[in-house]
Amino acid sequence: MALALGKTKQSKGDGAMKVKRKDVLQALLRAWPGVDSTEIFEQSQSYVFNKNRIYTYNDEIAVSHPLDFGEIEGATNAPQLLRTFQRCEYPELDISVRSKKIENEGGETQEKRELIISSDPDKPKRTKVGLPLEEDLGMLEGITAEIEDWFPLPPDFRTSLQFCLFCVTYDLTRPILTCVHITDLFIETCDNFRLIRCKYEKKLEIEKPLLISANAAKRLVGFDIIEFTTTKKWTHFRTEDDTIISCRSLKGKYPNMEKFLNVEGKEITFPETMGEMLYRLDLIGKDALGYDEEALVVIEKGKFKLRVKTDRGWVIDHSDFDYKGPKLRLTINHRLLAEAFSLLHSMIIGEKSLKLIGENFEHVVMLISKE
After folding, report:
1. At residue 6, does pLDDT exceed 50?
2. Nearest alpha-carbon partner for 275 in 332, 342, 336
3. Residue 248 pairs with which residues in a beta bridge?
4. Which of 133, 162, 187 is the last residue of a domain?
5. Number of domains comprising the chain
6. Is 140 within a domain?
7. Would you call 246 exposed, middle or buried from its count of C-beta atoms within 10 A (0-12, 13-18, 19+)?
8. What are the residues facing 196 on neighbouring strands?
9. What is the pTM of this model?
């Protein structure tokens, strides 16, 4: 329905409150990982103000952080609000809400609200910004509820979760394998060709295993999480500064991976120069995470070879190796191998797969060929 220009009446705005720019900016940045650039879901590109917290939401994950905006509640465009606080470089800003009554062509009156951000009016220079403030559409149902009981995470939970992200698939024909499987003793993932399981130092206090999406887990590992709890549809994690990351709990039964972890064969140790080889492979790395960067591993009589190829180039590195068996070829994420190398001590070469063994760490890779 078109709006009739020139038919706008402004009502008196709510009382302004003063906020410290750096505190608001910190809260906006902490909540930003929940913003979805595609905006498939309503208000997934918005900051939502609710009960002195700021929320972002994208259906798989919600992130919130304490932010005192008084009685202001509603949703506003996240990129615009973040840009406003990044560029309005005043130590303090005034926040208020102004209502507008707009008459449409049919004579009906609609009320629109704006979030007003302004600098001190008594200063020589002044900036004033108005952003549409929508009603909260209730997308955060089940997330904004008060949580009373939090439980400690094992100290190595975040590291274990990050390792497991190297072996998830994004093939939606096997949706269960796009998830991270969290149990009381370990985290595991599998992409139908590779399997990784990381055990915790201490038991995780959960009644039954949890499933969260790999996309949510990728954002979760960016936070220093120390506690968790579960509600009906969500698994919540909390940081020391009270940032809460809520991952949607998914339904399904994860396959039993025990039989794949039972690899029988000869156990051998890695080449002494393995660390140097992995360091050189990083010469043409694509990004800091490198979840999709694969290395071709070739093991043959007296030789251990690693090869990485990306759109930036390629690297081949090899070392003498005390091996006399058949020639083996497999692919493995070289960033995973590099980060886990300090934890690894040997590998078992089986008939169809190779198993890397380390402290609280097991990684099974299917062999491409065995000659």
Report:
1. no
2. 342
3. 234
4. 133
5. 3
6. no
7. buried
8. 189, 363
9. 0.84
